[in-house]
Design brief:
It contains six helices and no strands. The protein is mainly α. The radius of gyration is 19 Å and the shape is flat.
Length: 171
């Protein structure tokens, strides 16, 4: 039941929408469903640990860079859809340039632009701090769990042997 807007808001919240207040963000601080939820990062870290997208630099650098870019673009352009698209694009390009590509970082930038105005007071610490702490917490959790399970984090994929040549070498 509920209204279409209510169902959409619930779906967004269930999918982990939002990127401002960080894990455990208080509903008093931001609008419902608009805080950073590390679900996408956690899925990548724990289900594809060999991916370069979940190495510590990618998680920390990608998310922090993205929230900074989102905040900067919000300050320059406001919270419209054009600013959100530009934030996502800038985040992707910035992460590529700094070699810290982390796809959820694009969502962090977009959601920062769209939702940072909901904070009672917008400060660098209030916006960036929770994203940085949440990202660092996930990296530490992944490392701890890897130690408990005898695995290594960051996990590095084993190189695959080259497939045999299709044609026999010329004599």
């Amino acid at each position: 039941g509920g209204t279409r807007a209510g169902r959409a808001d619930a779906a967004l919240e269930g999918l982990g929408g939002g990127a401002v207040a960080g894990p455990g963000g208080s509903p008093r601080e931001i609008r419902r469903g608009r805080r950073n939820r590390p679900g996408a990062t956690a899925v990548l870290m724990f289900f594809i640990p060999a991916s370069p997208l979940v190495r510590p630099w990618a998680v920390l650098g990608g998310n922090v860079l993205s929230v900074l870019l989102g905040l900067g673009l919000w300050m320059l352009l406001g919270s419209g859809p054009g600013a959100a698209v530009l934030a996502g694009t800038a985040a992707a390009l910035g992460m590529l340039a700094l070699r810290c590509l982390h796809p959820p970082g694009g969502a962090v930038a977009v959601n920062t632009v769209l939702n940072v105005a909901a904070l009672p007071k917008v400060t660098l610490l209030a916006v960036v701090g929770p994203v940085a702490v949440g990202s660092a917490s996930l990296v530490v959790l992944a490392w701890l769990l890897s130690r408990l399970t005898g695995r290594r984090y960051p996990h590095h994929a084993h190189p695959h042997a080259h497939p045999p040549a299709l044609h026999a070498p010329a004599p």
